[in-house]
Amino acid sequence: MPDIIAETLHELIVATRILANERILDAFGHVSVRHPHNPKRYFIPRHMAPELAEVSDVVELTLDSEPVRPTQFRLYSEKVIHGEIYKARPDVNAVCHHHAHTVLPFAISGQQIVPVFHLGAAIGHVPFWDQRDEFGDTNMLVVKPEEGASLARALGPNWMVLMRRHGATVAGTGIRELIFRCVFGSDNCKLLAQAMAMGMGMGMGHVDSLSPGEAKLTSAHQQRPPSTNRAWDYWVRQVEKAGLMPKAPIGAATPAGKRAKAKAAKKTPVRATTKKRR
Amino acid sequence: MPDIIAETLHELIVATRILANERILDAFGHVSVRHPHNPKRYFIPRHMAPELAEVSDVVELTLDSEPVRPTQFRLYSEKVIHGEIYKARPDVNAVCHHHAHTVLPFAISGQQIVPVFHLGAAIGHVPFWDQRDEFGDTNMLVVKPEEGASLARALGPNWMVLMRRHGATVAGTGIRELIFRCVFGSDNCKLLAQAMAMGMGMGMGHVDSLSPGEAKLTSAHQQRPPSTNRAWDYWVRQVEKAGLMPKAPIGAATPAGKRAKAKAAKKTPVRATTKKRR
Amino acid sequence: MPDIIAETLHELIVATRILANERILDAFGHVSVRHPHNPKRYFIPRHMAPELAEVSDVVELTLDSEPVRPTQFRLYSEKVIHGEIYKARPDVNAVCHHHAHTVLPFAISGQQIVPVFHLGAAIGHVPFWDQRDEFGDTNMLVVKPEEGASLARALGPNWMVLMRRHGATVAGTGIRELIFRCVFGSDNCKLLAQAMAMGMGMGMGHVDSLSPGEAKLTSAHQQRPPSTNRAWDYWVRQVEKAGLMPKAPIGAATPAGKRAKAKAAKKTPVRATTKKRR
Amino acid sequence: MPDIIAETLHELIVATRILANERILDAFGHVSVRHPHNPKRYFIPRHMAPELAEVSDVVELTLDSEPVRPTQFRLYSEKVIHGEIYKARPDVNAVCHHHAHTVLPFAISGQQIVPVFHLGAAIGHVPFWDQRDEFGDTNMLVVKPEEGASLARALGPNWMVLMRRHGATVAGTGIRELIFRCVFGSDNCKLLAQAMAMGMGMGMGHVDSLSPGEAKLTSAHQQRPPSTNRAWDYWVRQVEKAGLMPKAPIGAATPAGKRAKAKAAKKTPVRATTKKRR
User: Fold this and answer.
1) Cβ of A111 and C191 within 8 Å?
2) Complex ipTM above 0.95?
3) Residues of B in contact with A274 (CB under 8 A)
4) Which of A48, A146, C126, D223 has the smallest count of CB within 10 Å of its CB?
């Protein structure tokens, strides 16, 4: 019988390694996941560069972002980003805060992000939030609960919010969907910036974005497991190639083990090599 | 006596590894090859990130993109891209569908791609195709046979077609020519975008592209084996350095084996280290 | 009892490896540190590509940039950059001179660098210096003491100065703060350039930079050990992954050793895995 | 007694590996060196991707680019680029033809390259050459002796010539100077392009290039051995890290061996670890 908590924590760490390897996270940024059984709790690693976190670094917090058990670990200053979004959005089960270099120019210039290729539809509508509007001059970190609540209000029913002069926060109904949205959202921003530059000087100042109908149909397709799992397996392989794979929890089926098993069986459908997630 | 099918499938997987290593393919995209003996069949890996595919993942499809033998494998949603092009173009024996980041900004901005350096002549004329024109709002995947046929019509007698807000599809008379066209086509797009940006602000808004005579003469030269094989050997070496080389089929001469043999002989001409292809 | 000099030299070499790995330094550029006990001395490697320097390559110089003990080593031509800044700035204990490709376009175009995201606040105000102004045509190296003194005057009370058509020089109160400023200063320049390009053609020609209040509050927060140490640990891990870690001095606690010790203890707070620095 | 020919050939292969690792060469491009004893001969590898060439692949050609001894090797189509420059320029002893992506946008847009940072002074004045001017529509390869002679005339007394819609050819008085010019010339182009983009939209359309006096003084300094050797040692280390180092000729002192020897001696000046070249 699989240990759901252990597998969740392992998947959280793998997800974080993926985002570090894909250059969405660097020394800063963090990923969290809601407790699979108790919606009033969430898991997040302690204060450290996200790539370096192991399952043993993960702490369990309340939605007020307080530790459930006493701990000597220092916690992320911006943990309320996660807790306040989990409070405001019962449908969200995974959150990432990052400073990806593909996205930050939009947070700096105020240019609107729109989906410009089919895989970018995952981002949906992307609102802005500027800490200065409500709180004036601050140290620009989302530290106080009211600052996290303000950010969650700006996110609204959407899946990604741009934080002016800071970065972005992304949400998902599960870890794999979150990672899919982070990576292809980053790609979308990179491609949008290049298409904008291209359109500028040659007499056509417009960029062709997805129609609302296209955006809706294609993101629905992408959020189904064959699509998210195919991408997840690819990113996990990149993490393995980079020597960044964490040890699997004891007893849980790992992607590597499942691949070997599937290879031997030869006729096994794709879905046996990936774990079904929400 | 060499097993042509086994060598073809091995070359298909090596070609896919090359395009993944050269960042033309990522979690998405796919490469196929027409059956060397039966023009009504083609080979393509099952639904998975292309870099991860081994020869054992390859399926044989009819030109209607249906499996020749029953299979439990999930197939690529967009397999009809390949089948419909093989139907429309008897001269095409290899097809690649990709979302390369060098090319996609042109598919987003609608900017015309032209060859701007001699190795870029491989792309020829590059038409556009927009799924929305004929099919309105869709999930933006080329899934239905009529959608694949529409794309094949847009490709026409050309070798590359840009798919608006999606990516590109590239064809070749053989695998090595296809890979040459994909990689140097990608380079051409990257260089064209940079030259366009350069021309914009400094008073010269024009980019110098190849004349029709130049394009014809230079692409004819490049499609000869010494040129395509030299590039192929280089890209294979990069795949080996990245630890991405698949196992060679039993009994077939591999590039690595041939190089070792040639090294010992020392006076062997270049052509002995590469396999002659169409 | 720790050997402070040995640990300082080790940290200097690690810092140099970090900047080489992060592409701030290449064949050229250099990092120095003031003597921890004697403010009239500083340490810098001998003339060589910075990435290649080991502790055994480090020499001790006076603030006139003369060797304290006779040496057969060739010294950096531009050592006076360091010595003259240490003379002018008693608060500075670490200096880096680099030609980072993210920063150089600003030194070439004369475009002002401003902090555009919270981590870029570390750079503060960035003045320009042009060797041609005071010295006419030179070989563009800061070789004479008066040239170094001129540069130090241009730096003034700031932490980074742009050297026209040459590169940049960055200062810090300690090594870890210096590296933080170099890396996030480089990121800031890269993001600023991209945001500027984005703002140009789409009707909004402005880039949103940090307010003075924001810049002051956020840089004060970042210069505290939890923040600089978190980033330092991350960059050290990247150096280890690249196989670039120098051997630790005998008897000194190394980051790797401390991490292993902390891992075993499991409950140890973050601060035990990093060394407190000025 | 060192074998000068063996050391020259080894250095030619190391130089080629450096340029491949620094992304100046890819599947195409080539490097040659004039015979150290006989100015009517030069050495160049046979037709193959340059990174793959070993000393055993090198052939000796006359300045008419004909093999000195009968060979079964296929030779580079564009060998006359090298031979004709060696004829026209007795001061040139090393030549590189490349399609570096940093440089090609200038060859495509016709934008003039100027040195914009001190290390870029190595390129000097960079004229253009367009094969179409004298030869009309061709396959764009410099194959005929008269085409090579035309290119050499365009190069004139300079050190780098841009070939429209094709690439660049670079010359040097020796291999190490050639490589220094290729790498920092490539950097210069990359930085110039970025500075140009930066200057465009913000109201200052000018890029600050080196004055003639600066260019002359700084390039003279850079061409002295401490500078070229320091960079060479750095690039060789990158080649070693990439696993691309060729085997050293038997009996010749290799950089790795010399470094080990110098390390043990500890007091050895820098110059003992590098070989003096022209």
Assistant:
1) no
2) no
3) none
4) A146
